[in-house]
Amino acid sequence: MDWNSLFAARARDRGGAELAAILGGVPEGVLGMTGGFPNVATFQTSVLADIAGRVIADDPGVALQYGPSAGLPSVRAYLRERVFALQGRRPGEDELIVTSGGIECLELLCRTLLEPGDVVAVEAPTYLGALMGFAHYGASVLGVPMDDDGLQVDVFSDLLAGGARPKFLYVIPEYQNPSGRTLSLARRSALVELCRRYGVLIVEDVAYRELAFAGDPLPSLWSLGPDVVVQAGTFSKIFSPGFRLGWAVGPAPLLAALADAKQNTDQCASALAQRMVEEYGRAGHFTEGVARARALYASHWAALSAALAEWMPEGVTWSEPTGGMFTWVTVPAEIDVRALRPAALEGGVAYVPGRPFYAGDEGHNEMRLSFSHLGEAELAEAGRRLAGVIAGALDASGAAAR
């Protein structure tokens, strides 16, 4: 078979190779700061085993059966109350659906909203999986630069004033993947008003919102502008990614269209996963579980931050996250971090190069480090190893220049 001749154009574009490498792990002996995987210590396995047994035994007609595309009624009712408790605004019955993880919400939005050639605005850098999804649907991606306070709303305003008309803007306001940055309160309000004025939908990804380990929570974009924001949430980071469960909150007409689109994807999210999240949440386990995750990731970041401060050579900078799983490292411009990867693996450490997180050619001297998976001692050692690799590359660059 000539497989290449059979593949559709979008399948011949192997843009997923970078993501597959992240998910595929690292060689033995290498300290990997690659995938944003929740730490196994955050999984409350005995609690989950008990809930699974009870739900399967007591409610098999629901938990083991097909369900409505929008989600089980009892689960949607629970999630509306949970959103209200965490964000101060209660979605209406027709303003929330259940999805198979946060990434499916993005898929449904693309399927529902995008035509080939449409423009999608994103933070630069942004989540690699989202960029892949937008490209899959033939969108033209417009990157908006960030700084330490998140998306530069004034730059986005200038782009809109200059005639840019994106179908939507995709943002991760808290502890952003990949940069670890958080959108400031002033910029949140300004962004909502700006998008309302120009009729631009905001797609708010809140995957990391609950994983704060410093500061008070800021209002979500959806709570500030429910008329112009659709929120994509996931339980992968605070419950378990193995259940593949998330939600979408937004304007009722859009949510109805997403539910219709879901009938042509997986038809319905796992009913067992939905019932387990509902039982877990109604019993109060999220309170304890999320608190444990926050404390764990805070200690992990402290270990890595200390190592970076102690060992990194002059000219290397990094973001200072107050939650989540990532920091964003920038090295001097003469270093290409993708070309540096073999030396890093040989030195026993792995990272994700920055360029795939951009729609353009930026990021050659930037990298993402995840501190969720490794322990404190491993992160301290990983930071030392990485600093040594970068210092060696700088020395070699200086010698070549001489």
Describe it:
The chain is α/β, with parallel strands linked by helices. Helices cover 45% and strands 14% of the residues. It folds into two domains: 3-43 and 287-397, Aspartate Aminotransferase, domain 1 (Alpha-Beta Complex); 45-284, 3-Layer(aba) Sandwich (Aspartate Aminotransferase, domain 2). It has helices spanning 3-6, 9-12, 17-23, 45-58, 60-63, 73-87, 102-113, 128-136, 153-161, 185-198, 221-224, 252-262, 271-282, 285-311, 337-346, 376-401, and strands at residues 31-32, 96-99, 119-124, 140-147, 150-151, 168-171, 201-205, 229-234, 246-249, 317-318, 326-330, 349-350, 352-353, 366-370. The strands form three sheets. It has an eight-stranded mixed sheet with strand order 2-9-8-7-6-3-4-5, with helices on both faces. It has a four-stranded antiparallel sheet with strand order 10-11-14-13, covered by helices on one side. Helix 8 links the parallel strand 3 (119-124) and strand 4 (140-147).
Main attributes?
single chain, 4-stranded antiparallel beta sheet, alpha/beta, 402 residues, 16 helices
| CATH-level-4 superfamily name of the largest domain | Type I PLP-dependent aspartate aminotransferase-like (Major domain)
Work out the radius of gyration.
21 Å
Name of the CATH class of the largest domain: Alpha Beta
Mean pLDDT, nearest integer?
94
Helices, by number, come to 16
The strand order across the widest sheet is 2-9-8-7-6-3-4-5
Computed structural class: alpha/beta
Low-confidence stretches: none
| Beta-strand share of residues | 5-15%
Major β-sheet profile: 8 strands, mixed
Tell me the total number of β-strands. Answer: 14
Fraction of residues in helices? Answer: 40-55%
The figure for the number of domains is 2
Distance between the termini: 54 Å
Spatial shape = globular
| CATH topology group of the largest domain | Aspartate Aminotransferase, domain 2
Oligomer: single chain
